[in-house]
Protein backbone atom coordinates (compact mmCIF):
# COMPACT_ATOMS: atom_id res chain seq x y z
CA UNK A 1 0.00 0.00 0.00
CA UNK A 2 2.82 2.39 0.90
CA UNK A 3 4.48 1.69 -2.45
CA UNK A 4 1.30 2.61 -4.33
CA UNK A 5 0.93 5.82 -2.32
CA UNK A 6 4.49 6.79 -3.23
CA UNK A 7 3.91 6.11 -6.93
CA UNK A 8 0.85 8.39 -6.84
CA UNK A 9 2.74 11.06 -4.88
CA UNK A 10 5.55 10.98 -7.42
CA UNK A 11 3.17 11.13 -10.38
CA UNK A 12 1.33 14.12 -8.92
CA UNK A 13 4.41 16.30 -9.43
CA UNK A 14 3.74 16.42 -13.17
CA UNK A 15 1.23 19.14 -12.31
CA UNK A 16 4.05 21.28 -10.90
CA UNK A 17 5.68 21.68 -14.30
CA UNK A 18 4.49 23.45 -17.42
CA UNK A 19 1.79 23.74 -18.69
CA UNK A 20 0.12 23.31 -15.26
CA UNK A 21 2.58 25.22 -13.04
CA UNK A 22 1.21 24.15 -9.65
CA UNK A 23 4.55 25.09 -8.06
CA UNK A 24 3.23 24.61 -4.51
CA UNK A 25 2.32 20.96 -5.02
CA UNK A 26 5.86 19.47 -4.65
CA UNK A 27 6.19 20.99 -1.20
CA UNK A 28 3.33 18.70 -0.17
CA UNK A 29 4.24 15.59 -2.18
CA UNK A 30 7.98 15.65 -1.42
CA UNK A 31 7.38 16.37 2.28
CA UNK A 32 5.00 13.41 2.49
CA UNK A 33 7.54 11.27 0.64
CA UNK A 34 10.32 12.15 3.08
CA UNK A 35 7.93 11.64 6.00
CA UNK A 36 7.08 8.12 4.82
CA UNK A 37 10.74 7.34 4.14
CA UNK A 38 11.84 8.54 7.57
CA UNK A 39 9.19 6.39 9.24
CA UNK A 40 10.21 3.22 7.39
CA UNK A 41 12.65 0.79 8.97
CA UNK A 42 13.66 -0.94 5.75
CA UNK A 43 13.14 -1.03 1.97
CA UNK A 44 14.36 2.57 1.60
CA UNK A 45 15.70 1.95 -1.90
CA UNK A 46 12.48 0.28 -3.08
CA UNK A 47 10.21 2.94 -1.59
CA UNK A 48 12.21 5.81 -3.09
CA UNK A 49 12.29 3.97 -6.40
CA UNK A 50 8.47 3.80 -6.35
CA UNK A 51 8.28 7.57 -5.86
CA UNK A 52 10.77 8.11 -8.69
CA UNK A 53 8.95 5.71 -10.99
CA UNK A 54 5.71 7.64 -10.55
CA UNK A 55 7.56 10.95 -10.86
CA UNK A 56 9.17 10.11 -14.21
CA UNK A 57 6.42 7.80 -15.44
CA UNK A 58 3.89 10.63 -15.50
CA UNK A 59 6.35 13.50 -15.97
CA UNK A 60 7.97 12.25 -19.18
CA UNK A 61 5.05 10.21 -20.48
CA UNK A 62 5.27 12.38 -23.61
CA UNK A 63 8.30 10.32 -24.68
CA UNK A 64 5.88 7.47 -25.38
CA UNK A 65 4.22 9.58 -28.09
CA UNK A 66 7.38 9.48 -30.20
CA UNK A 67 8.06 5.80 -29.48
CA UNK A 68 4.49 4.73 -30.27
CA UNK A 69 3.91 6.92 -33.34
CA UNK A 70 7.36 6.88 -34.95
CA UNK A 71 9.15 3.90 -33.43
CA UNK A 72 7.46 1.11 -35.36
CA UNK A 73 6.90 -0.96 -32.22
CA UNK A 74 3.76 -2.74 -30.99
CA UNK A 75 2.07 -1.13 -28.00
CA UNK A 76 3.32 -3.69 -25.50
CA UNK A 77 6.91 -3.11 -26.63
CA UNK A 78 6.64 0.70 -26.59
CA UNK A 79 5.11 0.63 -23.10
CA UNK A 80 7.86 -1.75 -22.02
CA UNK A 81 10.53 0.64 -23.28
CA UNK A 82 8.94 3.50 -21.37
CA UNK A 83 8.85 1.45 -18.18
CA UNK A 84 12.53 0.60 -18.58
CA UNK A 85 13.41 4.26 -19.11
CA UNK A 86 11.40 5.44 -16.11
CA UNK A 87 12.71 2.58 -13.99
CA UNK A 88 16.27 3.58 -14.86
CA UNK A 89 15.68 7.26 -14.01
CA UNK A 90 14.03 6.28 -10.72
CA UNK A 91 17.27 4.63 -9.62
CA UNK A 92 18.90 8.02 -8.93
CA UNK A 93 16.50 9.26 -6.21
CA UNK A 94 16.42 5.70 -4.87
CA UNK A 95 20.21 5.69 -4.42
CA UNK A 96 20.00 9.09 -2.72
CA UNK A 97 17.56 7.85 -0.08
CA UNK A 98 19.36 4.54 0.34
CA UNK A 99 22.67 6.30 1.01
CA UNK A 100 20.96 8.74 3.37
CA UNK A 101 19.46 5.95 5.43
CA UNK A 102 22.57 3.76 5.31
CA UNK A 103 25.14 6.30 6.40
CA UNK A 104 23.24 9.15 8.05
CA UNK A 105 21.02 9.44 11.07
CA UNK A 106 17.68 10.93 10.19
CA UNK A 107 18.30 14.03 12.25
CA UNK A 108 21.08 14.89 9.78
CA UNK A 109 18.92 14.56 6.66
CA UNK A 110 17.89 18.25 6.34
CA UNK A 111 21.55 19.29 6.25
CA UNK A 112 23.15 16.36 4.44
CA UNK A 113 20.56 14.97 2.04
CA UNK A 114 20.43 18.02 -0.33
CA UNK A 115 24.11 17.56 -1.23
CA UNK A 116 23.57 13.87 -1.96
CA UNK A 117 20.63 14.91 -4.11
CA UNK A 118 22.89 17.27 -6.07
CA UNK A 119 25.49 14.54 -6.62
CA UNK A 120 22.95 12.01 -7.90
CA UNK A 121 21.26 14.63 -10.09
CA UNK A 122 24.69 15.38 -11.56
CA UNK A 123 25.05 11.67 -12.32
CA UNK A 124 21.62 11.60 -13.98
CA UNK A 125 22.61 14.60 -16.12
CA UNK A 126 25.83 12.96 -17.32
CA UNK A 127 25.60 9.17 -17.22
CA UNK A 128 24.89 7.59 -20.64
CA UNK A 129 25.06 11.11 -22.21
CA UNK A 130 22.67 12.43 -19.54
CA UNK A 131 18.98 13.25 -19.25
CA UNK A 132 18.51 16.14 -16.77
CA UNK A 133 14.83 16.59 -17.64
CA UNK A 134 12.29 17.18 -14.87
CA UNK A 135 14.79 18.42 -12.30
CA UNK A 136 12.61 19.67 -9.46
CA UNK A 137 14.01 23.22 -9.57
CA UNK A 138 12.15 23.86 -12.84
CA UNK A 139 8.86 23.56 -10.97
CA UNK A 140 9.73 26.74 -9.04
CA UNK A 141 9.95 29.03 -12.08
CA UNK A 142 6.75 30.79 -10.99
CA UNK A 143 7.17 30.52 -7.21
CA UNK A 144 8.81 33.13 -4.95
CA UNK A 145 11.92 30.93 -5.08
CA UNK A 146 12.42 32.13 -8.67
CA UNK A 147 14.32 35.09 -7.24
CA UNK A 148 17.14 32.70 -6.35
CA UNK A 149 17.53 31.47 -9.94
CA UNK A 150 19.88 34.25 -11.15
CA UNK A 151 21.96 33.68 -8.01
CA UNK A 152 22.28 29.89 -7.66
CA UNK A 153 20.59 28.59 -10.80
CA UNK A 154 18.08 25.79 -11.17
CA UNK A 155 20.41 23.30 -9.49
CA UNK A 156 20.76 25.53 -6.42
CA UNK A 157 17.01 26.02 -6.19
CA UNK A 158 16.62 22.23 -6.40
CA UNK A 159 18.92 21.79 -3.40
CA UNK A 160 17.15 24.55 -1.48
CA UNK A 161 13.79 22.95 -2.23
CA UNK A 162 15.00 19.53 -1.05
CA UNK A 163 16.27 21.04 2.20
CA UNK A 164 12.87 22.61 2.83
CA UNK A 165 10.90 19.47 1.93
CA UNK A 166 13.10 17.22 4.08
CA UNK A 167 12.79 19.62 7.03
CA UNK A 168 9.01 19.64 6.76
CA UNK A 169 8.77 15.89 6.25
CA UNK A 170 11.09 15.16 9.17
CA UNK A 171 9.77 17.62 11.72
CA UNK A 172 6.22 18.73 11.08
CA UNK A 173 3.72 16.78 13.15
CA UNK A 174 -0.04 17.16 13.63
CA UNK A 175 -1.61 15.23 16.48
CA UNK A 176 -4.84 15.31 18.49
CA UNK A 177 -4.44 15.64 22.23
CA UNK A 178 -7.78 15.50 24.00
CA UNK A 179 -10.17 17.70 22.07
CA UNK A 180 -7.55 19.92 20.45
CA UNK A 181 -5.09 19.57 17.60
CA UNK A 182 -1.45 20.41 18.23
CA UNK A 183 1.31 21.19 15.76
CA UNK A 184 4.99 20.52 16.34
CA UNK A 185 8.09 21.14 14.25
CA UNK A 186 6.87 24.53 13.05
CA UNK A 187 10.48 25.68 12.73
CA UNK A 188 10.62 23.82 9.41
CA UNK A 189 7.93 26.18 8.11
CA UNK A 190 10.14 29.05 9.25
CA UNK A 191 12.84 27.83 6.82
CA UNK A 192 10.23 27.78 4.05
CA UNK A 193 9.11 31.32 4.89
CA UNK A 194 12.67 32.68 4.94
CA UNK A 195 13.46 31.06 1.58
CA UNK A 196 10.27 32.40 0.01
CA UNK A 197 10.61 35.93 1.38
CA UNK A 198 14.27 36.22 0.43
CA UNK A 199 13.46 34.87 -3.03
CA UNK A 200 10.73 37.47 -3.49
CA UNK A 201 13.16 40.21 -2.43
CA UNK A 202 15.88 38.96 -4.77
CA UNK A 203 13.38 38.86 -7.62
CA UNK A 204 13.09 42.64 -7.44
CA UNK A 205 16.78 43.04 -8.26
CA UNK A 206 17.78 44.03 -11.81
CA UNK A 207 20.81 41.86 -12.54
CA UNK A 208 20.77 42.86 -16.21
CA UNK A 209 19.36 46.06 -17.68
CA UNK A 210 18.59 47.23 -21.24
CA UNK A 211 21.60 48.99 -22.76
CA UNK A 212 19.69 51.05 -25.30
CA UNK A 213 20.29 48.75 -28.27
CA UNK A 214 17.73 46.53 -29.92
CA UNK A 215 17.34 44.22 -32.89
CA UNK A 216 14.24 43.07 -34.76
CA UNK A 217 13.90 39.31 -35.00
CA UNK A 218 11.43 37.17 -36.96
CA UNK A 219 11.03 33.49 -36.10
CA UNK A 220 9.47 31.16 -38.65
CA UNK A 221 7.43 28.11 -37.64
CA UNK A 222 6.86 25.86 -40.65
CA UNK A 223 4.60 23.23 -39.02
CA UNK A 224 5.91 20.37 -41.15
CA UNK A 225 4.43 16.99 -40.18
CA UNK A 226 7.08 14.64 -38.79
CA UNK A 227 5.98 11.90 -41.18
CA UNK A 228 6.79 14.19 -44.14
CA UNK A 229 10.14 15.57 -43.01
CA UNK A 230 12.52 13.07 -44.61
CA UNK A 231 10.51 12.12 -47.71
CA UNK A 232 12.63 13.27 -50.71
CA UNK A 233 9.57 14.40 -52.68
CA UNK A 234 8.73 16.82 -49.86
CA UNK A 235 12.15 18.49 -49.75
CA UNK A 236 11.41 21.24 -52.25
CA UNK A 237 7.85 21.98 -50.97
CA UNK A 238 9.23 22.28 -47.42
CA UNK A 239 12.01 24.64 -48.48
CA UNK A 240 9.60 26.74 -50.53
CA UNK A 241 7.19 26.93 -47.60
CA UNK A 242 9.83 28.41 -45.31
CA UNK A 243 10.89 30.82 -48.02
CA UNK A 244 7.29 31.96 -48.58
CA UNK A 245 6.72 32.46 -44.85
CA UNK A 246 9.89 34.58 -44.75
CA UNK A 247 9.06 36.70 -47.79
CA UNK A 248 7.31 39.48 -45.86
CA UNK A 249 10.05 39.69 -43.22
CA UNK A 250 13.27 40.46 -45.07
CA UNK A 251 13.15 43.87 -43.38
CA UNK A 252 13.88 42.24 -40.00
CA UNK A 253 17.44 42.31 -38.73
CA UNK A 254 17.44 38.56 -38.12
CA UNK A 255 15.24 35.74 -39.43
CA UNK A 256 15.41 32.34 -37.71
CA UNK A 257 14.27 28.97 -39.07
CA UNK A 258 14.05 25.93 -36.73
CA UNK A 259 16.11 22.78 -36.34
CA UNK A 260 16.75 21.01 -39.67
CA UNK A 261 14.25 23.32 -41.37
CA UNK A 262 16.03 22.54 -44.65
CA UNK A 263 15.49 18.78 -45.00
CA UNK A 264 18.27 18.19 -47.53
CA UNK A 265 21.98 17.87 -46.83
CA UNK A 266 23.87 21.14 -46.98
CA UNK A 267 26.21 19.87 -49.68
CA UNK A 268 23.16 19.11 -51.86
CA UNK A 269 21.51 22.48 -51.21
CA UNK A 270 24.29 24.91 -52.04
CA UNK A 271 22.32 26.63 -54.80
CA UNK A 272 19.32 27.24 -52.54
CA UNK A 273 21.57 28.50 -49.75
CA UNK A 274 23.35 30.92 -52.11
CA UNK A 275 19.98 32.35 -53.13
CA UNK A 276 19.00 32.86 -49.48
CA UNK A 277 22.39 34.39 -48.74
CA UNK A 278 22.10 36.84 -51.64
CA UNK A 279 18.59 37.86 -50.63
CA UNK A 280 19.62 38.34 -47.00
CA UNK A 281 22.66 40.39 -47.98
CA UNK A 282 20.55 42.45 -50.36
CA UNK A 283 18.13 43.41 -47.59
CA UNK A 284 20.72 43.84 -44.81
CA UNK A 285 19.37 40.80 -43.00
CA UNK A 286 20.84 37.70 -41.38
CA UNK A 287 19.09 34.35 -41.76
CA UNK A 288 19.81 31.44 -39.42
CA UNK A 289 18.59 27.99 -40.35
CA UNK A 290 18.90 24.45 -39.10
CA UNK A 291 20.42 22.05 -41.63
CA UNK A 292 22.16 18.69 -41.75
CA UNK A 293 25.78 18.81 -42.89
CA UNK A 294 27.34 15.66 -44.34
CA UNK A 295 31.04 15.81 -45.16
CA UNK A 296 31.76 13.31 -47.92
CA UNK A 297 35.51 13.45 -47.27
CA UNK A 298 35.34 12.57 -43.58
CA UNK A 299 32.05 10.67 -43.61
CA UNK A 300 30.85 12.73 -40.64
CA UNK A 301 27.35 14.14 -40.33
CA UNK A 302 26.38 17.10 -38.14
CA UNK A 303 23.13 18.60 -36.90
CA UNK A 304 23.98 22.23 -37.60
CA UNK A 305 22.86 25.83 -37.43
CA UNK A 306 24.01 27.96 -40.34
CA UNK A 307 24.08 31.78 -40.50
CA UNK A 308 23.60 33.43 -43.90
CA UNK A 309 23.56 37.07 -45.00
CA UNK A 310 25.03 39.85 -42.89
CA UNK A 311 27.47 38.95 -40.13
CA UNK A 312 28.00 42.57 -39.09
CA UNK A 313 25.33 45.25 -38.85
CA UNK A 314 24.30 46.43 -42.33
CA UNK A 315 27.50 45.14 -43.93
CA UNK A 316 27.50 42.62 -46.74
CA UNK A 317 29.79 39.71 -46.00
CA UNK A 318 31.64 37.19 -48.12
CA UNK A 319 29.11 35.22 -50.21
CA UNK A 320 28.06 31.84 -48.87
CA UNK A 321 30.37 28.95 -49.57
CA UNK A 322 30.12 25.40 -48.30
CA UNK A 323 32.08 24.96 -45.08
CA UNK A 324 32.14 28.62 -43.99
CA UNK A 325 32.66 28.99 -40.25
CA UNK A 326 29.63 31.03 -39.18
CA UNK A 327 27.91 27.87 -38.00
CA UNK A 328 27.25 25.70 -34.97
CA UNK A 329 27.23 21.89 -34.78
CA UNK A 330 25.22 20.19 -32.06
CA UNK A 331 27.36 18.78 -29.28
CA UNK A 332 24.91 16.98 -27.02
CA UNK A 333 23.34 14.29 -29.18
CA UNK A 334 20.10 12.54 -28.32
CA UNK A 335 20.43 8.75 -27.84
CA UNK A 336 18.44 6.74 -30.42
CA UNK A 337 17.30 9.89 -32.24
CA UNK A 338 20.75 11.14 -33.26
CA UNK A 339 23.10 8.29 -32.43
CA UNK A 340 22.52 4.65 -31.60
CA UNK A 341 24.71 2.97 -28.98
CA UNK A 342 25.65 -0.58 -29.99
CA UNK A 343 24.15 0.25 -33.36
CA UNK A 344 25.39 -2.91 -35.11
CA UNK A 345 23.06 -4.85 -32.81
CA UNK A 346 20.19 -2.47 -32.09
CA UNK A 347 19.54 -1.27 -35.65
CA UNK A 348 18.43 -4.78 -36.57
CA UNK A 349 15.93 -5.06 -33.72
CA UNK A 350 13.25 -2.45 -34.50
CA UNK A 351 12.59 0.64 -36.66
CA UNK A 352 13.02 2.95 -33.66
CA UNK A 353 16.73 2.07 -33.66
CA UNK A 354 17.04 2.78 -37.38
CA UNK A 355 15.41 6.19 -37.77
CA UNK A 356 16.47 8.54 -40.58
CA UNK A 357 19.35 10.82 -39.62
CA UNK A 358 20.41 8.88 -36.51
CA UNK A 359 24.18 8.67 -37.03
CA UNK A 360 25.37 12.16 -36.14
CA UNK A 361 28.82 13.29 -35.02
CA UNK A 362 29.24 15.54 -31.99
CA UNK A 363 30.36 19.11 -32.46
CA UNK A 364 32.83 20.70 -30.05
CA UNK A 365 31.69 21.51 -26.51
CA UNK A 366 32.71 25.15 -26.95
CA UNK A 367 32.08 26.87 -30.29
CA UNK A 368 32.00 30.44 -31.48
CA UNK A 369 28.78 32.43 -31.25
CA UNK A 370 26.78 32.89 -34.41
CA UNK A 371 27.29 36.38 -35.85
CA UNK A 372 23.97 37.69 -37.16
CA UNK A 373 23.78 41.28 -38.38
CA UNK A 374 25.91 42.59 -35.53
CA UNK A 375 24.23 40.42 -32.87
CA UNK A 376 26.14 37.57 -31.21
CA UNK A 377 24.02 34.52 -30.42
CA UNK A 378 25.00 31.55 -28.24
CA UNK A 379 23.33 28.49 -29.83
CA UNK A 380 21.71 25.36 -28.43
CA UNK A 381 19.96 22.77 -30.57
CA UNK A 382 17.01 20.82 -29.14
CA UNK A 383 17.60 19.44 -25.62
CA UNK A 384 21.03 21.08 -25.33
CA UNK A 385 19.14 23.94 -23.69
CA UNK A 386 18.70 21.61 -20.67
CA UNK A 387 22.46 21.64 -20.00
CA UNK A 388 23.33 24.95 -18.30
CA UNK A 389 27.04 24.13 -18.13
CA UNK A 390 27.22 23.91 -21.91
CA UNK A 391 25.27 27.15 -22.32
CA UNK A 392 27.56 28.89 -19.82
CA UNK A 393 30.70 27.64 -21.56
CA UNK A 394 29.54 29.19 -24.83
CA UNK A 395 28.68 32.61 -23.41
CA UNK A 396 31.26 35.33 -24.05
CA UNK A 397 31.56 39.00 -23.15
CA UNK A 398 30.03 39.77 -26.55
CA UNK A 399 27.05 37.38 -26.32
CA UNK A 400 23.79 39.29 -26.79
CA UNK A 401 21.23 36.47 -26.57
CA UNK A 402 20.75 32.72 -26.55
CA UNK A 403 19.22 31.03 -29.59
CA UNK A 404 17.67 27.59 -29.31
CA UNK A 405 15.99 25.70 -32.14
CA UNK A 406 14.06 22.47 -31.94
CA UNK A 407 11.66 20.10 -33.62
CA UNK A 408 9.09 18.98 -31.05
CA UNK A 409 6.78 17.46 -33.66
CA UNK A 410 7.94 14.08 -32.34
CA UNK A 411 5.86 14.62 -29.19
CA UNK A 412 2.54 15.75 -30.61
CA UNK A 413 0.02 17.52 -28.41
CA UNK A 414 1.63 16.44 -25.13
CA UNK A 415 3.14 18.31 -22.21
CA UNK A 416 6.66 17.65 -23.54
CA UNK A 417 6.96 20.83 -25.66
CA UNK A 418 5.65 22.90 -22.75
CA UNK A 419 8.34 21.50 -20.45
CA UNK A 420 10.92 22.21 -23.16
CA UNK A 421 9.83 25.85 -23.31
CA UNK A 422 9.95 26.04 -19.51
CA UNK A 423 13.59 24.92 -19.60
CA UNK A 424 14.40 27.70 -22.08
CA UNK A 425 12.75 30.21 -19.74
CA UNK A 426 14.94 28.92 -16.92
CA UNK A 427 18.13 29.56 -18.94
CA UNK A 428 17.00 33.13 -19.63
CA UNK A 429 16.34 33.73 -15.93
CA UNK A 430 19.62 32.15 -14.83
CA UNK A 431 21.89 33.97 -17.27
CA UNK A 432 19.98 37.25 -17.59
CA UNK A 433 19.84 37.03 -21.38
CA UNK A 434 16.98 36.99 -23.91
CA UNK A 435 16.25 33.57 -25.40
CA UNK A 436 14.99 33.15 -28.96
CA UNK A 437 13.25 29.78 -29.27
CA UNK A 438 12.27 28.65 -32.76
CA UNK A 439 10.54 25.32 -33.39
CA UNK A 440 8.96 23.42 -36.25
CA UNK A 441 5.42 23.27 -34.84
CA UNK A 442 5.62 24.94 -31.42
CA UNK A 443 6.22 26.22 -28.96
CA UNK A 444 8.04 29.08 -30.70
CA UNK A 445 8.51 32.02 -28.33
CA UNK A 446 10.41 35.16 -27.42
CA UNK A 447 11.68 35.08 -23.83
CA UNK A 448 13.09 38.18 -22.18
CA UNK A 449 16.13 38.32 -19.89
CA UNK A 450 13.89 37.77 -16.85
CA UNK A 451 12.54 34.48 -18.17
CA UNK A 452 9.13 35.87 -19.15
CA UNK A 453 7.47 34.89 -22.43
CA UNK A 454 6.81 38.13 -24.28
CA UNK A 455 5.32 36.57 -27.42
CA UNK A 456 4.45 33.02 -28.41
CA UNK A 457 3.33 31.53 -31.72
CA UNK A 458 0.22 29.39 -31.97
CA UNK A 459 1.10 25.73 -31.72
CA UNK A 460 0.52 23.50 -34.77
CA UNK A 461 0.31 26.47 -37.14
CA UNK A 462 2.50 27.60 -40.02
CA UNK A 463 3.22 31.13 -38.91
CA UNK A 464 5.77 33.78 -37.98
CA UNK A 465 6.26 36.04 -34.99
CA UNK A 466 8.30 39.23 -34.96
CA UNK A 467 9.59 41.25 -32.04
CA UNK A 468 12.15 43.94 -31.33
CA UNK A 469 14.27 42.54 -28.52
CA UNK A 470 16.18 44.77 -26.14
CA UNK A 471 19.84 43.86 -25.67
CA UNK A 472 21.04 43.98 -22.07
CA UNK A 473 24.20 44.61 -20.09
CA UNK A 474 25.18 43.17 -16.73
CA UNK A 475 25.69 39.63 -15.47
CA UNK A 476 23.81 37.51 -13.00
CA UNK A 477 25.82 35.90 -10.17
CA UNK A 478 24.98 32.51 -11.69
CA UNK A 479 26.48 33.51 -15.02
CA UNK A 480 29.67 34.63 -13.26
CA UNK A 481 30.14 31.75 -10.80
CA UNK A 482 27.98 28.89 -12.06
CA UNK A 483 27.35 25.97 -9.70
CA UNK A 484 30.49 26.42 -7.57
CA UNK A 485 28.78 28.38 -4.74
CA UNK A 486 25.93 25.85 -4.58
CA UNK A 487 28.24 22.85 -4.31
CA UNK A 488 30.42 24.67 -1.78
CA UNK A 489 27.59 25.75 0.54
CA UNK A 490 25.65 22.49 0.42
CA UNK A 491 28.91 20.55 0.68
CA UNK A 492 29.64 22.37 3.94
CA UNK A 493 26.13 21.64 5.17
CA UNK A 494 26.67 17.98 4.31
CA UNK A 495 29.85 17.85 6.38
CA UNK A 496 28.12 19.72 9.21
CA UNK A 497 25.26 17.24 9.17
CA UNK A 498 27.64 14.30 9.41
CA UNK A 499 29.49 15.96 12.28
CA UNK A 500 26.36 16.86 14.22
CA UNK A 501 24.83 13.41 13.86
CA UNK A 502 27.52 12.02 16.15
CA UNK A 503 25.92 13.96 18.98
CA UNK A 504 22.29 13.11 18.22
CA UNK A 505 20.57 9.74 18.40
CA UNK A 506 18.70 8.45 15.39
CA UNK A 507 15.06 9.49 15.31
UniProtKB/TrEMBL annotation:
<comment type="pathway">
    <text>Protein modification; lipoprotein biosynthesis (N-acyl transfer).</text>
</comment>
<feature type="transmembrane region" description="Helical">
    <location>
        <begin position="480"/>
        <end position="500"/>
    </location>
</feature>
<keyword id="KW-1133">Transmembrane helix</keyword>
<feature type="transmembrane region" description="Helical">
    <location>
        <begin position="45"/>
        <end position="63"/>
    </location>
</feature>
<keyword id="KW-0012">Acyltransferase</keyword>
<keyword id="KW-1003">Cell membrane</keyword>
<feature type="transmembrane region" description="Helical">
    <location>
        <begin position="111"/>
        <end position="136"/>
    </location>
</feature>
<dbReference type="InterPro" id="IPR004563">
    <property type="entry name" value="Apolipo_AcylTrfase"/>
</dbReference>
<dbReference type="InterPro" id="IPR036526">
    <property type="entry name" value="C-N_Hydrolase_sf"/>
</dbReference>
<feature type="domain" description="CN hydrolase">
    <location>
        <begin position="220"/>
        <end position="471"/>
    </location>
</feature>
<dbReference type="Pfam" id="PF00795">
    <property type="entry name" value="CN_hydrolase"/>
</dbReference>
<keyword id="KW-0472">Membrane</keyword>
<dbReference type="Pfam" id="PF20154">
    <property type="entry name" value="LNT_N"/>
</dbReference>
<dbReference type="GO" id="GO:0016410">
    <property type="term" value="F:N-acyltransferase activity"/>
</dbReference>
<feature type="transmembrane region" description="Helical">
    <location>
        <begin position="148"/>
        <end position="169"/>
    </location>
</feature>
<dbReference type="GO" id="GO:0042158">
    <property type="term" value="P:lipoprotein biosynthetic process"/>
</dbReference>
<protein>
    <recommendedName>
        <fullName>Apolipoprotein N-acyltransferase</fullName>
        <ecNumber>2.3.1.269</ecNumber>
    </recommendedName>
</protein>
<keyword id="KW-0808">Transferase</keyword>
<comment type="similarity">
    <text>Belongs to the CN hydrolase family. Apolipoprotein N-acyltransferase subfamily.</text>
</comment>
<feature type="transmembrane region" description="Helical">
    <location>
        <begin position="75"/>
        <end position="99"/>
    </location>
</feature>
<dbReference type="GO" id="GO:0005886">
    <property type="term" value="C:plasma membrane"/>
</dbReference>
<feature type="transmembrane region" description="Helical">
    <location>
        <begin position="181"/>
        <end position="202"/>
    </location>
</feature>
<comment type="function">
    <text>Catalyzes the phospholipid dependent N-acylation of the N-terminal cysteine of apolipoprotein, the last step in lipoprotein maturation.</text>
</comment>
<dbReference type="InterPro" id="IPR045378">
    <property type="entry name" value="LNT_N"/>
</dbReference>
<dbReference type="InterPro" id="IPR003010">
    <property type="entry name" value="C-N_Hydrolase"/>
</dbReference>
<keyword id="KW-0812">Transmembrane</keyword>
<feature type="transmembrane region" description="Helical">
    <location>
        <begin position="20"/>
        <end position="36"/>
    </location>
</feature>
Amino acid sequence: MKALILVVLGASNTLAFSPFNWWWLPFISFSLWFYLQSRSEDKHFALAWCFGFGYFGAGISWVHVSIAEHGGLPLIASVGMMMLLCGYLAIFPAITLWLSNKFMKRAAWPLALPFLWLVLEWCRAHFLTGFPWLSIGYSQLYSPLQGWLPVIGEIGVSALFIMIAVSIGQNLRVQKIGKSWQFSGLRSLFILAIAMISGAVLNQNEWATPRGQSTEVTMVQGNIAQTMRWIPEQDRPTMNKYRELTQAHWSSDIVIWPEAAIPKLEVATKGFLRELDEQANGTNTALITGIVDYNYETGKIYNSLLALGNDLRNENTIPYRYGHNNRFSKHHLLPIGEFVPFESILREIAPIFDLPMSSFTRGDFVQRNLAANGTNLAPAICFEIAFPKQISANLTEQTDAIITVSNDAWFGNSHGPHQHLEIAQMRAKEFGLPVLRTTNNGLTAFIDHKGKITQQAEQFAATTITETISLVSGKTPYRMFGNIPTYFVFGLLFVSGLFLQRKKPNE
